[in-house]
Amino acid sequence: MLLVRRSKFGKSRQLPLQSSTLEALQEYARRRDRLCPRPASESFFVSLRGTRIIYACVWPTHRMLCERPGVGAGMAHPPRVHDHRHSFAVRTLVGWYRGGHDIQARLPWLSTYLGHREPRYTYHYLSAAPELLGHAARLLERDQAVRS
């Protein structure tokens, strides 16, 4: 379990993680502690100076990491950090549809991972992705067939 303390709006939450994710976080923590033994912040992710990571520092690094291998090359709008949140939300939902799960029952889980107080704030990330629209159309057709 990962405990996220005092995130945006002072919220805290627990998130179950796969062992590979926990291992990657533990490896990061070992490297961080070796490079910055006395950080100036209690944040888990810190800068090289030991201060809390801020978006103004993250986005240029993200941009560089995308540009080097050509991710988003030639696109009118290159990938942004928050696009990963959208991809995570859509892939999770598609997986649940494919697995035949009750989406409404699981939506609060997705909201928790994204750090949203309520599922209604999560809908923004679930905009018209083609595969999601296909699943929604099949559900509507099935419901209409049941009503007929």
Features:
single chain, 148 residues, mainly alpha, 2 domains, globular
Quick structural overview:
The protein is mainly alpha-helical and 148 residues long.
Can you tell me about this structure?
The chain has 148 residues and is mainly α. The chain folds into two domains: 2-53, no CATH class; 81-147. It is 53% helix and 4% strand. The protein contains five helices and two strands. A two-stranded antiparallel ribbon has the order 1-2. A hairpin with an 8-residue loop joins strand 1 and strand 2 (13-15). Helix 3 (81-98) runs antiparallel to helix 4 (103-114). The longest helix has 18 residues, at 81-98. The chain is globular, with a radius of gyration of 19 Å. It starts with a strand and ends with a helix.
Largest sheet: number of strands, sense, barrel closure = 2 strands, antiparallel
Q: What sequence of helices (H) and strands (E) makes up the elements?
A: EEHHHHH
What is the average per-residue confidence, as pLDDT, rounded to a whole number? Answer: 85
Put simply, the count of helices is 5
Radius of gyration, in angstroms, nearest whole number = 19 Å
In total, how many beta strands? 2
Low-confidence stretches: none
Q: Termini, distance in Å?
A: 46 Å
